[in-house]
Amino acid sequence: MNAEPPNPHPPRALVLAAFATVYVVWGSSYLAIRVAIETLPPLFMAGCRFVVAGAALYTVLRLRGSPRPDRAHWRNAAVSGFLLLVGGNGLVVWAEQTVPSGLTALLVGLVPIWFALIDWLRPGGPPPQLRTIVGVLVGFGGMALLVSGQRAHAHDAAALNPGGVLALVLAGILWACGSFYAKHNSKTESPWMTAALQMLCGGVILLILALPTGELAELQWQRVSFQSVSALLYLIVFGSWIGFSAYVWLLKTSKPSHVATYAYVNPVIALFLGNVLLNEPLTARVLIAAAVILAGVVIITMPKNGLASALGNGNLIRRSGETQAKPSP
Fold first, then answer.
1. Contact 287, 40 (CB under 8 A)
2. Could you say which of 2, 6, 200, 324 has the lowest number of CB atoms within 10 Å?
3. Residue 7 falls inside a structural domain
4. pTM of this prediction?
5. Helix H or strand E segment including 223
6. Residue 195, Cβ neighbours under 10 Å: how many?
7. Would you say 26 and 164 are in contact if contact means Cβ atoms under 8 Å apart?
8. Nearest to 263, CA basis, from 87, 113, 97
9. What phi-psi label fits residue 279: left (phi over 0), alpha (psi between -120 and 50 degrees) or beta?
10. Model pLDDT for residues 202-240, shown as the tens digit of each residue
11. How many structural domains is the chain composed of?
12. Which residues of 139-158 are buried (b: 16+ CB within 10 A; e: fewer)?
């Protein structure tokens, strides 16, 4: 597209704000999805979410003078939208019908591992750095500690749905694949237009898939609750317009392994929100696990020369800009 190219060295405050948005907003989306699918079919709900969000964002961008996307833009958006929003988000929404939220968080927490492995296995991909491996293991250990406590007191492991567990593992792999594809094949200078096209394409595919699954035939509008509709609106505005747009922008300006750290923080945010909104207990195990998870995030994202050096000379932001040419794990 002919829009002005994004700044390769964005302000540090803007990068931190985008990360905070993805961390907090997507952390709250687990709760919103759970409420939304109480009375709305999962694929239909997810499809409506992304079609409405994508159409609104696309309209705003066109009214502000963004060029019309061509066939190549739509083709690449269809591929990345399918991987990210149908394979990634769609499978998570579907799985949350049968898989406990704690195990869902654990399996989604595998995303940084898929990022590192896919980046390593792609043609010309560099092997994971020792710091990345250590950070992933620490973060995964915190996730295991977090979920083991939740399952031990709330769920019977024998009751877990194997289809839902497999769907969550596949969702993480497809999300990582879609993120790499979007980073290197968006073909648009505007990350906001990229996000709009991906949401439109992914949302339409989800609505199409809702037909053969029988969701639309079984939908009873009179039984749809106000809470589910409110949760859907929250997912449209905050989860899609704000959160997904910030995520797509970060893919263009930061390392994939850095962006993937949202998978460690989101479950922690979800637990704290559950405590505030649903009076769910916060045990010592949960607090320790949260500290371990955040330690893993720090290990992965900390510049080699340390935080003081990064704040002094902007190494973190410069490294983020360099990923346009050669991403690192």
1. no
2. 2
3. no
4. 0.74
5. none
6. 31
7. no
8. 113
9. left
10. 999 999 999 888 888 888 888 999 999 999 999 999 988
11. 1
12. bbebbebbbebbbeeebeee
The tokens describing 146, both together, are: 């977090």
Find out whether 179 and 81 touch, Cβ atoms under 8 Å. no
Give residue 195's domain range: 12-322
Tens digit of pLDDT for each residue in 281-299? 677 877 787 788 878 777 8
Q: Is residue 329 part of a domain?
A: no
Name residue 198's amino acid: Q
Query: Tokens in use for 296?
Result: 């893993």
- Type of residue found at 204: V
Closest CA to 93 of 107, 104, 80, 77: 104
Read off the tokens for 120: 């390593």
Structure tokens given for 150:
């939740």
CB atoms within 10 A of CB 257: 23
Count CB neighbours of 284 within 10 A. Answer: 8
**Which residue from 70, 59, 82 is spatially nearest to 203, judged by alpha carbons?**
82
Distance separating alpha carbons of residues 31 and 314, to the nearest angstrom: 36
3-state SS track over 72-99: HHHHHHHHHHHHHHHHHHHHHHHHCCCC
Residue 109 in tokens: 């927490």
Tokens 């709330």 belong to 154
| Nearest-angstrom CA–CA distance, 281 and 277 | 11
